[in-house]
Amino acid sequence: MKRISTSVVGLFVLISGLHAQTKISGRVFDMSKHPVAGANVYIKDSYDGSSTSADGTFSFSAADTGKATLVVSMITYEQWEKTVWLKGTDLVFNISVKESANQLKTVVISAGTIEASDEKKVTVLKPLDIVTTAGAQGDITGALKTLPGTQQVGESEGLFVRGGTGNETKTIIDGMVVAKPYFTGIPDIAARGRFSPFLFKGTVFSTGGYSAQYGQAMSSALVLETQDLPDRSSATAAVTSVGVGAGINKLSKDSTASIGGDFNYTDLGPYYKLVPQEVSWNTTPIFAGGSLNFRKKISDTGILKFYGYGNYSQLGVVRPNLDSTNGYQDHFELRNQNYYTNLTYKDNLNDHLKYYVGASYSYNQDDLKPDNLHIINTNQLSQGKLLFTRSFGSLSLLRFGGEFQNNRDISNFSSPYYSNKYDITDNYSAGILETDLYLSSKIVARIGGRAEYSSLQKRSNIAPRTSVAFKTSSNSQVSFAYGDFYERPVTQYLFEQPTLNYERATHYILNFQHVEENRTFRVEAYYKKYTELVTSLPTNPLMPQDSIHNAGSGYARGVELFWRDKKTFRNWDYWVSYSYLDTKRQFQNYPSMVEPTFATPHTASLVVKRFFPSILVNLGATYTYATGRPYFNPNNPVFLGDHTPDYHKVGITGSYVRKFGNTFSVFVIGVDNVLGRNNIYGYRYSTDGSRSEAVTATAARMYFVGVFLSFGIDRTQDVLNNN
Amino acid sequence: MNTNKLFLLTIATALSLQVFGQNKRYLSSMEKNLQMMDTCKTLSSYQQTANAFERVANAEKKEWLPSYYLALCNAFMAGMSSGDKIDEYCDISEKYAVKADTLSPNNSEVYALRALIYSMRIGVNPMLRGAKFGGKSAEMTAKAKELDPNNPRPYLLQGQNKFYTPEQFGGGKERALPLLEEAVRKFDNFKPASPIAPNWGKQRAKQMLEECRKK
Predict the structure, then answer these.
(1) For residue B167, is it within any domain?
(2) Residue B144 and residue B136: Cα distance in Å, rounded?
(3) In a designed cystine with A247, which of A31, A203, A262, B167 is the match (CB 3.0 to 4.6 A)?
(4) Closest residue to A104, CB basis, from B51, B55, B84
(5) Does residue A697 lie in a domain region?
C-alpha cells in the first residue's frame, strides 16, 4: 500500500511539476528600434501570453515546461517565432519584428509605369477614372491622353508616346497581344479603341522601360487585365445619342463560373443629321458587334477566362480633290470585320510556382475603296504564351517562359489598270527570362531580357531589360530603367522587303514618385535612342524595294510631371500633367533628321472632377493644351518647316446616378471641345502646292448623351430590394 | 483493492481533472475576455482583447468561439479606422471568420460576422465598393437569417447597412427603421446558447433605432 501511495504522490508531483512557472519578459521593437505596442506575445499551443504595452514591454508566466515556441504576432508585421526552453528560470528577450511586405511599404518598379487598378492600393488611377474623365468619351485612349508622355494627335488613332508613332504602342489583353486594338480609321480621322473600359479590372500604361514580358513595342505597352467573376448576375442596357447596347452576365449558383455576352449597335447617321459635320459622309459610320465571355474557377487559385469579340463597321467620306479645278471629289469607302478571341488560364502549381498559359486568335479585314481602287487587307494572328513565376525569399521572383505568334498579312490591290497581291507569314517566337530581386523591402532590381526570332525577317535579337527602384522614404521612391526594345517594321515595308531588320529603341528613364493615399506626385526624365528605323526615300521609282532600308535613326528626350490630389478640397479630385518632348528622327520618306508630324515640345492637361454626394452628381472638366506640330508644306524648302497653331481643348461631362426599383441607372452628358475651337492637326496640299485644306476634327463640338441601366437578376438583388 | 486497478483509477482521475481543468480554464478565460471586450473603447484595448482571444484560439484548436471573437474584435477595429487600415483589419478578421466557419459550419452567427466584415470594407471607398461589398454583405445576412431566424444580429446588420446607404441607392433612415425595430424585438427575446455564445449588438440596435426615429 505504501508503494502505491508513493507512486500516486509521485504521479501528482510529476503532473504538478509540469506546471512549474517560467517568467518570460522583454521588449518588442521594429526594425528602426521603435517599440511596438499591442503585439501579442505567447507560447504556441498554450493560453500563456500577453500584449506589449506602449513602451513595447511584456511579461507573463508560462505554465508548461520543456521545449516550446515563443511567438510574437502583430498586424502588419511578420510573425516572429523562436524555440525556447521552459525550465522555471526567468527568460528575457529583446525581439525585433519585421514589417510585413505589403504593397504600401514595399518598393515597386515605377519607372515608365502608370497603373489603374481597384485591387492594388498604390495606383495613380482607378479604372472608374477612365470612365469619368471629361473629354475621353469613355475611350481608354482618350483618358490616357490626359497623362504625361502622350501626344494630342487628333487625326489618327493610337497612343503616340514620347516621340513614337502610334504603331510603337502595343495593346495587350490578359497577356495576349491585340493586333488591331482600334477601329480602322479613315485618313485624317481618328478612330476609337475597340474595347470598353468596363471590361477591365486593371490597366498598366507603360511609357517605357517595361518588363521583358512585353516585346515588339518600341515606345509603349498598354497592359489590360479583364474582370474576374462578376459579383452577381446582371443585365445591362444602354441608349445613347449614337446607338444602343444590351448585355447579360450570369453567375452560376455556386459562384464558380459565369457566362455573359453583349451586343452593341452604333449608327452615327441620326446624330450627324442633328449636328452638322465638317466632313461630308458618303456612308455614315455604323458599327455593329458583340462579345462573349466565360469564366470558370477551376481550383482555389486557378481561373480560366475566355473573351471573344466580333465587330463589323462601315464608313465612307467624300472630299474635294485639291488637284482638280473642276470640282472633282475624292471618295473613300471602308468596310471592316474584326474578331478577337482570348483564352487564358492561371494557377499555382505549388506555393512557390505559378503559371500562366494563354492562346489567342484574331482576324481583321479592311476592305478599302479609295476612288476606283480596291484594297483588301487581311491580318490573322494566332498566338500562344506560357509563363512561369517562381517566387523565392519573401518578395523576390523569377519569371521565365516563351511565346509564339503566327502572323499572316495579305493585301490585294486592284485598280482598273493594275492589280497586285502580297502575302507574307511570319512565325515569331520569343523567350523571356527575368528576375525581380529584392535586396530588402526598400531596394529591388529587375534584371532580364527577351530573345526573339522572326522566320520572315530571318533575324533574331536579344533585348536586355533592367530596372532598379529604391525607396527613399515611406511614401517616395526613385527608380531607373534601361532597356532595348525591338519592333518589326510596319507591314507595308515588309511586303516589299521581308528581310528588313528590327527597328530598335533604347530607353533610359529616371523616375521619382511620392504616393500618399490621395495624392500623387511624379516626375520622370528620359532619353530614348532610335536606330535601324526604316527609310523609304525612292531612289529608283521602278524598283521601290531597293530604297527600303534600316537606314534611319532618331532620338527623343524629355521631362514629365504629374500631380494628382484628391485630398485638399473635399469631394474634388484633380490632376495636372505636363510633358516636355524634344525629338527628331529620320524615317519613312523623311529626307533629313527632323521633328516628326506627331510630336510637339509642350503638352499639358488639367483634369478636374467634383462629386456632389448628397445628389449623387459627378461633374468633370478637362483642359488640354499643346504647342503646334510640324506639317508638310511643299512650298517651304525646309522639310516639315511649318507648324500648326497651338492646340486647346476643353471637354466637360456630367453624370447622375439613381436607383429605380431594382435598376441602377446612370445618366451621362458630355461635350467635347465645348468652346468650339477650330484645332488644326495639319494641312493637305495639292500636288503643286497651290491649294491647301486644313485637317481638323469632323465637327467643332462633339455631344454625347446616354442612359446606362443595370438590372440585378438574381436572388441577391431581391434580398437587397426587399430589405 | 487491486493495486493495478487503483493505479489506473488514479491516472484516470488525474487526467480527467486535467481535462476538466482545461475546460474550466477555457470557459473562465473566455468569460474574462468577453468582460474585457465589453469595456473596450479604444483601438489599443480592442487589440489587447483580440490578442487574448488569439491566445485562446491558439490553445483550443477545436473551438470556434475564440476565432469568432478574434475576428469580431478586428472587425470592430476596422470600424474605428480609415483608409487602408480598414482592409488590414478586415483581412485578419476574414481569415479567422473563415476558420470559425470551418470549425462550425452553417452557423448563423458566423454568417452574420462575415456580413459585418463586408460592410466594414465598404468604408475604404464607398463610391467604388458600395455595390460590390453591399451585395456580398446582403448575401451573408440572408444566409444568417435562413440558418437561424431568431438571431437578431443579421437584422441589426441589415438595418445598419440601410442606415448608411444613401437614399438614392435604396437606403436611408426610413428604410432602416422597420429592420431595426425587428432587430430590437428579436434582441429582447434572444437567449444566448451559453454564457460565452455571441450576445452583442443590442445596445447598438437601440441607439440606431432612436437615430432613425429622430426627424
Answers:
(1) yes
(2) 12
(3) A262
(4) B84
(5) yes
Q: What is the 3-state secondary structure (H, E, C) of A620-651?
A: EEEEEEECCCEECCCCCCCCCCEECCCEEEEE
- In the three-class reduction of DSSP (H, G, I as helix; E, B as strand; rest coil), residue A500 is classed as coil
| Contact check, Cβ <8 Å, B25/A47 | yes
Q: Measured between beta carbons, which residues in chain B are less than 8 angstroms from residue A71?
A: 58
* Closest CA–CA distance from residue A619 to any residue of chain B (Å): 15
- Entry pTM: 0.80
Other C-beta atoms within 10 Å of B19: how many?
Answer: 10
Phi, psi angles (nearest 5°) of residue B13: -60, -45
Residues A308 and A203 grouped into a single domain: yes
A105 falls within a domain: no
Q: Please tell me whether residue B99 adopts helix, strand or coil conformation.
A: helix
Cα of first residue to Cα of last residue in chain A, in angstroms, is 74
Give A351-381 pLDDT, tens digit per residue.
899 999 999 999 999 999 998 899 999 999 9
CB within 8 Å: B170 and A51: no
Residues of B in contact with A7 (CB under 8 A): 7
Domain that holds residue B89: 12-213
Query: What separation in angstroms does the CA of A2 have from each of A14, A584, B3, B14, B141?
Result: 18, 106, 11, 19, 65
CATH number of the domain to which A271 belongs: 2.40.170.20
Q: What is the tens place of the pLDDT at every residue in B34-89?
A: 999 989 889 999 999 999 999 999 889 899 999 999 999 999 999 998 877 888 89
Of A11, A104, A615, the CB nearest to B11: A11
- The shortest CB-CB distance from A231 to any of B7, B136, B175 is to B136
* Prediction ipTM score: 0.83
